[in-house]
Amino acid sequence: MILIEEGKMSRGFTLWFTGLSGAGKTTLTEAILPHLRARGSQVEVLDGDEVRTNLSKGLGFSKEDRDTNIRRIGYVGRLLSRNGVGVIAAAISPYREIRDEVRRSVEADGAAFVEVYVKASLEALIARDVKGLYKKAIAGEIKQFTGISDPYEEPLAPEVTIESDRETVEESAAKLLAKLEDLGLIGRARAAA
After folding, report:
1. SS3 sequence, 31-86?
2. Nearest one of 58, 71, 39 to 185, comparing CA atoms
3. pTM flag (> 0.85)
4. Are 61 and 92 in contact (CB under 8 A)?
5. How many whole angstroms separate alpha carbon 11 and alpha carbon 83?
6. What is the pLDDT of residue 190?
7. At what angle do helices 169-182 and 25-38 cross, to 10 degrees?
């Protein structure tokens, strides 16, 4: 089945993927990106790990440094989305107050902000963790590890909740694309013969 675009994106948006390490933010980004581009959307990805390497190099993992990192991602997302670009920001972004601050700044510029909470059980996160970071954090070998020794504040009312340990990647992507269609941020796709 081939998807054909029916109408282009009318305004920019920032999809803000939040969730613990290993929840599936990057996997979901990779799954929806080709669908968005196939529908004619200009899309840029701001991946938390890449931003830390290129834009936030030198920041640590204190609350202040984490807030600074998220504000930087939010600032770039705001600039792009106010100019009609779709932005996917995939970062743990553990603190609700800073996510809400980013939402306000994006929306103040006339773009849409769509919070996507990507979650999974701790057992699933540990099972997926090929580097063993969760086990090290639980053993106290890693300090300030979000969700173990540092807090993660779940979103109170995200536009979309993805349960990556209960849904397939395809189901999660379809749910997210349907929400973007419902919000009028992307055109509806139809099957071509």
Report:
1. HHHHHHHHCCCCEEEEEHHHHHHHCCCCCCCCHHHHHHHHHHHHHHHHHHHHCCCE
2. 39
3. yes
4. no
5. 8
6. 63
7. 50
Distances (CA, A) of 73 to 35, 60, 68, 101, 190: 23, 15, 9, 12, 33
Residue in this structure with the two tokens 């390490």, named with its chain if needed? 21
Give the end-to-end CA distance of the chain in Å, rounded to a whole number. 8
Distance CA 48, CA 189 (A): 29
Of the candidates 129, 133, 84, which has an alpha carbon nearest to the alpha carbon of residue 110?
84
- Determine how many CB atoms are found less than 10 A away from the CB of residue 170: 9
Neighbours of 152 (CB within 10 A): 18
Whether residue 73 contacts residue 28, with contact meaning beta carbons closer than 8 Å, is answered with no
Active site residue 93: yes
Of 41, 56, 93, 172, the active-site residue reads: 93
**What does the pLDDT look like over 47-81, one tens digit per residue?**
877 877 777 777 877 888 889 989 999 999 999 99
Retrieve residue 24's tokens.
């599936």
